[in-house]
Amino acid sequence: MSDEPLLEVENLRTTFDTDQGELIAVDGIDFSIEQGETVCIVGESGSGKTVATESITRIVPIPPGEVDGSVRFKGQGLQSIDDEALRDIRGDQIAHIFQNPQEAMNHVYTIGWQIVEGLKIHQDVTDEEARAKAVELLDRVGIANASARFNDYPHEFSGGQKQRAMIAMALATDPDLLIADEPTTALDVTVQAQILDLLNELQDEFGMSILLVTHDLGVVAQIADRVIVMYSGKVMERGDVYQIFEEPAHPYTQALMKCLPEFGGNAGGIQGTLPDPTDPPDGCRFAPRCEHAASDCTVGDQPAEIEIEPGHLASCIYYQQGYDSSVVQNDDLGTNANERTEAADD
Amino acid sequence: MTNSEPILQVNDLKKHYPIKRGLLNREVGAAKAVDGISFEINPGETVGLVGESGCGKSTAATSIIRLEDPTDGEVIFNGGDRQGASRNGDGTHPNDVTRFNKRELKRFRREAQMIFQDPASSFNPRMSVGRAVSEMLEIHGMKDKHRRRAIVEDLLERVGLSAEDYDRYPHEFSGGQKQRIGLARALVLNPDLIIADEPVSALDVSIQAEVLSLIDDLQDEFGLSLLFISHDMGVIKSICDRVAVMYLGEIVEIGEVEELFRNPQHPYTEELMSAIPNPDPRDRSEGISLSGTVPSPTNPPSGCKFHTRCHKVVQSDEFDLEQEAWQQLLTFRQQVSIQGVDVDEIRENALLGRSEEEITDSVLKSEVRKEFDLPSELSDREAEKTLDNALDSIIADDFESATETLQSTFTTPCEEIEPEFTDHGDGHRSACIRHRNEIQSMELAADD
User: Fold this and answer.
1) Are residues B336 and B227 in the same domain?
2) Tens of pLDDT, residues A226-269
3) What CATH code is carried by the domain that includes residue B211?
4) Helix, strand, coil: what percent of chain B each, to 5?
5) For the region Disordered, what residue ranges are annotated (chain B) (predicted)?
6) Fewest CB within 10 angstroms: A6, A21, B269, B341, which?
7) B-contacting residues of A 281-340, CB under 8 Å?
8) Residue B195 covered by a domain
9) What is the predicted ipTM?
10) CB spacing of B204 vs A191 below 8 angstroms
């Protein structure tokens, strides 16, 4: 492979026309995904993380959103190609799995039929070959007695089994990129652990890249290589998973961490709510809820991302020249994080 | 804890749903959603009820509060001004919710409240939230409109909203805000007990923490007792004083939260805990992964109901195999007994990349082993011989004798003995026969 990343997104901007005016769901974000890498986008509901991933293959929901910016997949610009060509990539080289497998399936067709359908659209296979492959995939994602379950309808599968079947469908065409939007949020914790293990295993086996959207930092810690923290359509912070968890730089990331039960949990959440996406505040989007916000935080645009360490960037003015970054850096993050940084200092 | 009586005492509560079939609608069986649970909640205490979907925790809640009539058992509620009641001559209890008449029930509905999982579907979209909350006061006899409004406005402020929100409609609020209104509605009648069924599961993590801390504050302020239902051990840990772990309609372990988290005694509790995603990226050990899903409550496994999924399932006295192999062996035995081994399919798969002649019986047998994650050879010779015989029968399509071979040799005490509670001190109890064995061997040693 070349040095080029598998997916490269630049200045992605997705807007919706609403009665209240233009709603900016994603406001000019950049990111890239390397071959075989797992990138997690994390943020609260309404931060634009789902729309960002849907914009990649232009499956943005109704009312149709305007998608701007450049998306390059394997060096090919996806924004300029026509719908037909995009459809060939979507579901073949880029596959999606969604939060609610119930809604993503057609309940009047059998599970097997739905996997076979995807295979036959994208690959030149006979019925028998497609069937054999579908059974093999169901078996691979951990459906016991796969050949018998092939003819079951979605309602005969449990929630966890449905999500497994969804993953089987997504993997049918051996995609290079799997986009998983909150794949475990609707599931029990025990089933969630099973699905995360499965994704990890399958990635080792198939070598695909995963772009995973979640609001659960516990999930991120278990699966991510790199993390992008989104808030109100903007990227607040990005870095590898250790940088984000051990030295969270942006006050928003720090606030998210404090919500974890392991870091005290009952810290009271993050005060306030997300800004109105039709009328975002000036300056840093997080400033109205930020305990460190100064007057400079509420003017101009979202601060540019500053590189703190190689690969670790935060969009916060305290990291710009002339500001004291220690104000936001050594924020008390519960005992665990402190112990860890102390240990690192030693 | 204290000598004062518990506010809620659940004794051997059962809820069975009959399964009816045929022309005469005869009862052919029952789904035992809740099958004999007992616990108590002391005044001001938060007790958690935790388990996977389908373990009966929500049914337990609705049966306790009598949204559904329980099949059997007692729910003794000592809230309101019912303290200090003693049993009647015939052994019944005057505070038994399951025996309340219409009038008593209406009063009980004032003193015990429920909060539901999905705040969006528990409000009437066409009624302002203020009306939705004040309706409770109206039903329970407060005729003065202005007083009702004043009370509700005050309450909205206390749950972190503003008095002006009284006239707004549910769709104008976010999920977290709606759950706050749900809290206001539960509090408006000044109850003694609140049953919260997964109140934060539908919310974002950041909002979850916010609502949890609000519940905690309000509990102190109003002196509430809480039954808190969740599938999330992390949430339970952050809010509960004591926790009961439920599996297939039964409580398998109960104890103080800290003690239970530090020192879980039941394998199911261990597995639930290891399922919480660890927010430390440097610790990605897979832990104990719970395989499969909860079996159907219409036909639960015998003995300990958890033995079909348990990673510590006890071996019979003759064997001392690798624990993992033992567990796989029992799973295999189960699959064979329901003819869940598709030999034709396995043969077909084995054919890929091989010619017909190469598929000998021994190749086929090793393929079956692979399919069920059985080791290529068991460490115990007797066990290996039995398994090999069974595999021969399976390939000969004789499932009956294979089942018999396996079932007569590979048995676990877990499927024969119903576990009883073992006390680990300080009210920490668990129902697992491993503890009984430990205790017995200790007793035997003492006798010697």
Assistant:
1) no
2) 999 999 999 999 999 999 999 999 999 998 888 876 655 545 67
3) 3.40.50.300
4) 40, 15, 40
5) 273-303
6) A21
7) 336
8) yes
9) 0.72
10) no
Domain of residue B51, residue span: 8-240
Of B53, B238, B284, nearest to A265 by CB-CB distance is: B238
Residue of A nearest to B338 (CA): A145
Residues B30 and B170 in one domain: yes
pLDDT, tens digit (0-9, with 9 covering 90-100), for B138-190: 999 889 999 999 999 999 999 988 999 999 999 888 888 889 999 999 999 99
What is this structure's pTM?
0.81
**Does residue B129 lie within any of the structural domains?**
yes
- Range 172-191 of A in CB contact (< 8 A) with B: 188-191
Which chain A residues are Cβ-neighbours of B342 within 8 angstroms?
A: 145, 147-148
Beta-bridge partner residues of A231: A234
Type of residue numbered B300: P
Name the domain boundary from B240, B270, B305: B240
Do A221 and B279 touch, CB atoms closer than 8 A? Answer: yes
Residue boundaries of the structural domains of chain A:
101-174, 250-345
Select from B209, B240, B271 the last residue of a domain: B240
Q: How many domains does chain B have?
A: 2
Contact: A216, B213; criterion CB under 8 Å: no
The verdict on residue B247 lying in a domain is no
Helix-, strand-, coil-residue percentages of chain A, each rounded to 5: 40, 20, 40
CB contact at 8 A, B235 and B211: no
Strand order in the sheet with B429-431: B112-115, B193-197, B225-230, B46-50, B242-247, B250-256, B429-431, B421-423
B354 and B228 in a common domain: no
Please report the residues numbered 83 through 142 in chain A whose beta carbons come closer than 8 angstroms to any beta carbon of chain B: 135
Q: Please report whether residue B382 resides in a domain.
A: yes
CB contact under 8 A, B174 and A224: no
B333-356 pLDDT tens trace: 888 888 777 787 777 777 776 777
